[in-house]
Amino acid sequence: MSTQRRLAVLAVAGGIALAGAGAAGLLEHPTTAAVAAPDIGTLPAPSHPPAPVPGHGTAGPLSGDPAPDRHAPPVRLRIPRIGVDTAVTDLQVEADGHLAAPATPDVAGWWSNGPAPGGPGNAVLVGHVDSLTGPAVFAGLSDLRPGDGIDVAEADGTTVPFTVRALRGFTKDNFPDDLVYGTTATPGLRLITCGGAYDHDTHEYLSNLVVFAEPTPPAPSTSSPQRRTS
Questions:
Q1: Residues whose CB is less than 8 angstroms from the CB of residue 66 and which lie 6 or more positions away in sequence, other chains included
Q2: Contact call for residues 43 and 168 (beta carbons, < 8 A)
Q3: Using CB atoms within 10 A of its CB, is residue 207 exposed (0-12), middle (13-18) or buried (19+)?
Q4: Could you give the residue ranges of the DSSP H alpha helices within the chain?
């Protein structure tokens, strides 16, 4: 397994799958049913692999260096179809290579060294699917369908609207690094939570559920075109 892939798998399968440091205890007794691996919608075109990071010696999205051309950081996530209206916290890669999971099950987390929603590249937001006390913030993620709206409010007061394009379930060994973290010239949004069967021995889900979304095109103007006269 390449260094790039190993880093991405550790971050997604370990931290986002909620079995990373400090998160495994939340899932000793899952309170929601296993999330079936969906295959809904059309995936975006494959993006370029993450570029090498100067001075680090490895390629990968988890270098810890902030992405260029950043928008304001996200502070709130709203998904009307599934009733999500939650704060967004910053997440960073820990020393063991895992992307930390949100500290509480009722908020979403943003990989703060990656692209911000609305800027070039794929912004990654993650959340728990459940906890010891019940369903968590992303429990309903599998109910989303292409065409559903997602709004990300940013710290500068702007809101960036996205539209769901596809849902996919991936086992940890087959997580598509480039599709989630790959470099793109246009904005993208990836929402990730746990999915698949739950392993009671390791206290973790065996898969990840990923929602792929793209910016919502602006509504066409309703004004009539002006007739030009010579």
A1: 112, 113
A2: yes
A3: buried
A4: 3-9, 177-181
Regarding pTM above 0.85, the answer is no
DSSP class of residue 185 equals S
* Run of H or E including 157: none
> How crowded is residue 163: how many other Cβ atoms within 10 Å of its Cβ?
15
CA 74 – CA 1 distance, rounded (Å):
33
Residue matched to tokens 């998904």: 79
pLDDT in tens, 75-120: 999 999 999 999 999 998 888 777 888 999 999 999 998 999 999 9
pLDDT at 100: 84
- Report the Cα 221 to chain-centroid distance in Å: 31
Q: State which residues of the chain have pLDDT below 70.
A: 1-37, 46-70, 221-230
| Gap between the Cα atoms of 25 and 109, Å rounded | 18
